[in-house]
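task queued by scheduler; priority normal; single chain, no ligands, no partner chains; default sampling; output format set to structure tokens
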Amino acid sequence: MTAPTTAPTRSFANVALLNRVLAVATAALLGIDAYVHLHDAGQYDAVTTSTLSQGNLFRAEAAAAIAVGVALLIRPHPAVWALAALVAASAAGAVFLYRYVDVGRLGPVPNMYEPSWALPGKTLSAAAETAAAVLAIAGLALALRTRSRAAKQRR
């Protein structure tokens, strides 16, 4: 006679699978964000201040998205989830802000106002960033909940 699988074991396996699915999906969305930013960066090198160009900001965003996406695939720790949420939400926030508000130049940051969704990749990038932010927040919540339950079980 075999012992039935206990509910906590099945539950842990389901949570681990959900965590992995969220990590892969978030990393894929961050990859889309990075691709669009790297692909379009050259078109924005002319938008500049004496310190920064919008193209360089795009490259930095792409590098951050790639680094965090890879980190999520390697180890979806709560700190990595928080970084993923920060990277994705800041990128989504910036694209929506500069689409609808003419902020102007902010210190070394050039005026990036662009009142259109018609530019290639902009809509795709905004959708990927928004979805990645939502998934990263869900991943962070799951990781914190799992961590809290594991700590309670060790007591």
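post-processing summary
- The radius of gyration is 19 Å.
- The first helix runs from residue 7 to 40.
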